[in-house]
Amino acid sequence: MDNTDIEYGTDVFNEGVMREYLAKDTAEALLHTMRDHAPLDPAIANEVAHALKQWAMARGATHFTHWFQPLTGSTAEKHDAFFEPMGVGQTLARFSGKNLIMGEPDASSFPSGGLRRTFEARGYTAWDVTSPAFIKRHANGATLCIPTVFCSYTGEVLDKKTPLLRSMQAMEKAVRRLMACFGEPADGRVVCTLGPEQEYFLIDKAFYLKRPDLIQCGRTLFGAPPARHQQLEDHYFGSIKPRVIAFMEEVERELWRLGIPAKTRHNEVAPAQFELAPMFEELNLAVDHNMLIMETLRNVADRHGFVCLLHEKPFAGVNGSGKHNNWSVAYNGKNLLDPGKNPQDNAIFLAVLASVIRAVDLHADILRAATAGAGNDHRLGANEAPPSILSIFLGDELTGVIDRIEKGSRAAGGQTPTLRVGVDTLPPLPRDATDRNRTSPFAFTGNKFEFRAPGSSQNCAGVCMVLNTIVAESMDVLADAIGKLPKEKFNDGLQKILQAVIKDHRRVIFNGDGYSDEWVAEAARRGLPNLRTTPEALAPMLAQKNLDLFAKEGVLLPTEMESRHDVFMEEYERKVTIEGKAALEMARSMIEPAATAEFGAVCKAVEAARAIGVEPGVASVRDVAETLGRGLDALHAQCAALERALGDSPAAILDALAALRATVDKLEEDVDDARWPLPKYRDMLFVY
Ligand code: ADP
Ligand code: MG
User: What CATH code is carried by the domain that includes residue 435?
Assistant: First the structure.
């Protein structure tokens, strides 16, 4: 293959296609709607629908679907054929403005947290004009996908997309207000940007099919770490094996066709772990694209005899997978987290930075909640991923700047002079990848924040929705204060406001080693929350301050927030229960028989040796039998304990599971390799 057949964006209903298929005025109207998030003029819906259908059918699509993001965490679609029967043996391709704008999936089986009672199951999907339609290809056909939001008939949101769009509106309002304080035009274009780096594992499908735990839970419930895993640090950025690169190249081609700017690919820290990073895009689109990236990774892996594992911790003792959310916001095309080169830009940058610092300190609890989940619990705080304590890394240079603002008038002669906001120019801040602190959950990386706590399988919509909301609230508070400053005292006043924010929220800044025990103790002294498990981390969703905040910013009503809390808790409990049941079944039907057979064989060997009067070795073999026997006893007791725990809390299940796992992993060492019923880590992680 060469690069002459590379297609970019050919399966997207993009500007070029619109201009080709639509009358000039209609194309302009639609583009205006998309760009400026303006309401769609219903008068053009039929024409747009017709054009979409013509284009999609010309590209081989036979069906269309409203594509949406329910609270399950994945995407949902229900396909309808374009064709409707018309008399004997004839069909007519029908797809109207009504089909385009609104759909009515039977929604009774999607989680709603009590917002929608089953007997009034209907929900509806509505076209999200800001994200372009695209074509998904399958082995024998193609489907036109229309990105939509998903609501109940009474208007409550049932998806991850609607609150994200609302949070973008909150940001738009807040950023405009803040910019106006600096004398910038008050109606500028606000664009939140996101570049999500996606980590994943690839293993050979043959191994996967022999692991009921991977099939049912997405992670291994048993398995001893092999002698060699990641100690040699030779996998990270190592040369990519041919079978993997072939897979990656196919993934990229598919993504490019969908207009997804897949840019970087490399080996990650753990064996069999990889990363794909796209170029950043407008937030809403980047979220959709990340959902498509995950789906494409899974589908293409299957075609290559691989399975792509997106779970946050598929292998115990081996690095887990995250999704680094690189987030920023731009005003009239200028990145507000880029310090810029003159005092005015610097002042804006510092105000935005202060807003983020204030937001993360005040609302660390709800930001942590957005990263909660059964899978991510094994990662956050497990000494290899960012801890569940949210702190901000600024780096030495920027921390120095913050210090100089904080010290303010207290800076005596001989010390580094105070930085006069709006008058002085900031020193250059390095944007160098090498000095980054990888242990921080929330790091400033030169011109954006990189939020590393989100899990590899999570939809970025949740975290970005929270980030937008809390930052918008901080910007509002700053704009309230800055807006009141008299012109002649603007710089001094701004200086004081920023100084106060930094003083109040300084405790959230931490540039040291986030994995260390010292930090856990230090964070406790600073009063920063450390919410380790999903139930703890989700609880802040019900706190009055958070319900008020999300209502005030117009992102989620208290009922919507509470229902989300219930959905996520229920999902967590279900996942943990499934893990408990799967482990019990595997232990009893796979591990116990193998260990019993081994025990029998060893006992027989002792007997046989005795029968012919061989003494050397008998004592050692007896020891082995003892060890196996004790393992079997422990296994038996721990299975019974897990069974009891299944009727108890998720915490009890997880404890019982951990105890059982320790026994099984020990047996894995003691039982004849030929008899062990599960593929081992040393195979799954290295053979491909
Ligand atoms: P690395 O972190 O590997 O050094 P980069 O810093 O170039 O790489 O970018 C990592 C991710 O951050 C990429 O997806 C990139 O597109 C994204 N990114 C860069 N600038 C921005 C921005 N202004 N807003 C959001 N994401 C950004
Ligand atoms: Mg990065």
Answer: 3.30.590.10
C-beta of residue 511 within 8 angstroms of C-beta of residue 393? yes
Ligand 2 centre to CA of 443 (Å) is 9
Residue type, 264: T
Strands 190-204 and 306-309: antiparallel
Chain position carrying tokens 């039998």: 625
479 and 360 part of one domain? yes
The residue ranges of the chain whose pLDDT is under 50 are 118-119, 411-412
- Alpha-carbon distance of 450 to 472, in angstroms, equals 18
- The two three-digit tokens of residue 109, written as one number: 């089986």
- Ligand 1 site residues (CB inside 6 A) read 193-195, 197, 277-280, 326-328, 335, 433, 445, 447-448
Q: What is the CATH number of the domain that holds 28?
A: 3.10.20.70
Where among 158, 192, 209 does a domain terminate? 158
Q: 135 — phi, psi (to 5°)?
A: -115, 125
Contact of 590 with 626, CB cutoff 8 Å: no
Residues 539 and 625 in one domain: no
Do 453 and 431 share a structural domain? yes
Please indicate, yes or no, if residue 225 is contained in any of the structural domains.
no
Distance 287 CA to ligand 1 centre (A): 15
pLDDT digits (tens, 9 = 90+) for 232-255: 677 777 889 999 999 999 999 999
CATH number of the domain residue 629 falls in = 1.20.120.1560
Number of structural domains the chain divides into: 3
Q: What is the DSSP string of 332-362?
A: TTEETTS--SSHHHHHHHHHHHHHHHHHHHH
Evaluate whether residue 526 is within a structural domain: yes
Of the residues 556, 589, 612, which one is the last residue of a structural domain?
556
CA distances from 87 to 90, 93, 95, 363 (A): 6, 13, 18, 62
* Same domain, yes or no: 544 and 638: no
Domain assignment present for residue 415? The answer is yes
Which residues, in sequence order, are CB contacts of 107 under 8 Å at separation 6+? 116, 121, 122, 123, 150, 152, 158
Using one digit for the tens of pLDDT, what is the confidence trace for 302-340? Answer: 999 999 999 999 999 999 999 999 999 999 999 999 998
The tokens describing 590, both together, are: 């796979």
Residue 493 lies in a domain: yes
Distance, CA of 429 to CA of 447 (rounded, Å): 9
Q: What is the pTM of this model?
A: 0.95
Instruction: Find, among 334, 253, 329, the residue nearest to 286 by Cα.
Output: 329
Q: Which atom of ligand 1 is nearest to the CA of 445?
A: 6
